[in-house]
Amino acid sequence: MKIKTVIIEDEPRSLKELRSQLDGFRNRIEVLGHADNVEDGVRLITELQPQLVFLDVEINQGTGFDLLQQLDTIDFKVVFTTAHSKYALRAIKFGALDYLLKPIDPEELEALVGSLPEEDSINSELNQLKVMLNHLTEQQTPKKLAIKEVGKVEFINLDKIILLKAKTNYTQIQVAGRKPILSSKTLRYYEQLLTDKRFRRVHRSFIINYRYVREFVHQDHLIVMENGEEVYISPNQRKDFLDEISL
Predict the structure, then answer these.
(1) Are strands 152-157 and 144-149 parallel, antiparallel or unpaired?
(2) Is 210 helix (H, G, I), strand (E, B) or coil?
(3) Helix axes of 86-94 and 126-137: crossing angle, nearest 10 degrees
(4) Maximum alpha-carbon separation in the chain
(5) d(CA 167, CA 111)
(6) H/E/C letters for each residue in 63-92?
(7) CB 98 within 8 A of CB 78
(8) 203-233: buried (b, 16+ CB within 10 Å) or exposed (e) per residue?
(9) CA angle 163-164-170, nearest 5°?
(10) Residue 154: in which H helix or E strand, if any?
């Protein structure tokens, strides 16, 4: 059995390129059809009940998010495709959802298809989609962050994150009241994501949550967090840090 797939895309050229690229995976992917607007996309998904949907972020007079909100159930995997919209991409990342930037890189598509489970094991990412949609509808920074681990996704309250520590190309996320989480994303990735004033990158290896700062040792330029972690603050970050915590 192949993975039943539909494409929601309103740009003829992008549609043609994606279908052509997916032809290279005919042993795994079966494209059942496509739609170029929200209404037809909802109808297509409802009728064909795909396991995988390539969903353009911006569709004719609407968005892929509009489409998702009009469905009674979401029991398929979503891969977003987008050429722009930084805000939308940030929401997608908050949900730890898969996406492809247009024009789609063949190697990235190959990696994505290779990461898909067997067709009878594909599950929807409903909770991750909820995190993403909440980000789009809330006026403030969302309350949760989805973090992919091996074989599972963790949903962490932002208020519970003490700090994030670089571990080569990984990031250790220290969370109040539980063991640290190791994410396969870089610290730079989270720096771009956590843009509200609660979080600051104070060193090339650390992002801290101001809420959990216990003390600052002036002589050693050390921030001591509530969990006892000592964080050295870079010289170029000291003034802003001191101004922001009013020391």
Answers:
(1) antiparallel
(2) helix
(3) 140
(4) 67
(5) 23
(6) EHHHHHHHCCCCCCEEEEEECCCHHHHHHH
(7) yes
(8) bebbbbbeebbeebeeeebebbbeeebebeb
(9) 165
(10) strand 152-157
Query: Tokens standing for 178?
Result: 């539980």
pLDDT at 85: 66
Question: Any residues with CB less than 8 A from the CB of 161 and at least 6 apart, and which?
Answer: 145, 173, 174, 175, 176, 199, 209
* Cα–Cα distance measured from residue 169 to residue 226, given in angstroms and rounded to the nearest whole number: 26
End-to-end Cα separation, the chain, in angstroms: 63
Q: To the nearest 5 percent, what fractions of the chain are helix, strand and coil? A: 35, 35, 30
**Beta pairing partners, 149:** 152
Residue with tokens 């050390």: 222
Q: Using an 8 Å Cβ cutoff, are 21 and 49 in contact?
A: no
Q: Which residue type does 154 have? A: E
φ, ψ of residue 60 in degrees (nearest 5): -45, 115
**Quick check: 130 pLDDT over 90?**
no
For residue range 146-187, list pLDDT tens digits in order: 998 767 889 999 999 999 999 988 999 999 999 999 998 999
Query: 14 with 34: CB under 8 angstroms?
Result: no
Q: Which two tokens stand for residue 39?
A: 């209404």
